[in-house]
Amino acid sequence: MLTSYKNILYATDLSANSTKAFRHAVALAKQSGADIHVLHAVEELSDDARTTLMMFVLDQKQRDEAINNRTGAAKKALDEMQDKFWSSVPDEDKPLREHVKSTEVVEAYPAEAILNHAQQKGCDLIVLGAHAQGFSHTFLGSVPKRVLRRSQVPTLVVPASS
After folding, report:
1. pLDDT tens-digit map of 23-65
2. What one-character-per-residue DSSP string does 27-65 give?
3. Considering the entire predicted model, what is its pTM?
4. What is the pLDDT of residue 159?
5. From the CB of residue 11, how many other CB atoms can be counted at a distance below 10 Å?
6. Which CATH number is correct for 7-158, 2.120.10.30, 3.40.50.620, 1.10.1840.10, 3.80.30.20?
């Protein structure tokens, strides 16, 4: 029997290549009728960054706002990216947007967030993009490598050239 997907996790780093990966996630959802869950992880601040923030922003309220603005800005960018994507698809494919069941931004280490989210949402496929740096640098990038190494479900890594 052929594999049928029910829940696809599309993890994005908000890069141009991540839109290419989303196109693949939508195509797979169209073929299988799967739901899509969109995730972006804002990497947690390091201890050094938090210390620096505390040293230069003395007001606790302003520090909290600065930290919260990181995820808020990412959520806004993610929403804009989604709107731009859906405005560019042919009219007959616009109803596919209904397959997107959740869009979340979390503050966490990206690979951990992707793996945890896939498990929590019962995803049977993870889709994400590779970095466009080529073989001379890191072809996949550290996040896709970590996800591939530890994922319990199939993972589709879309190359930058697709």
Report:
1. 999 999 999 999 999 999 998 767 776 677 666 666 777 767 7
2. HHHHHH--EEEEEEEEPPPPHHHHHHHHHH---HHHHHH
3. 0.84
4. 87
5. 29
6. 3.40.50.620
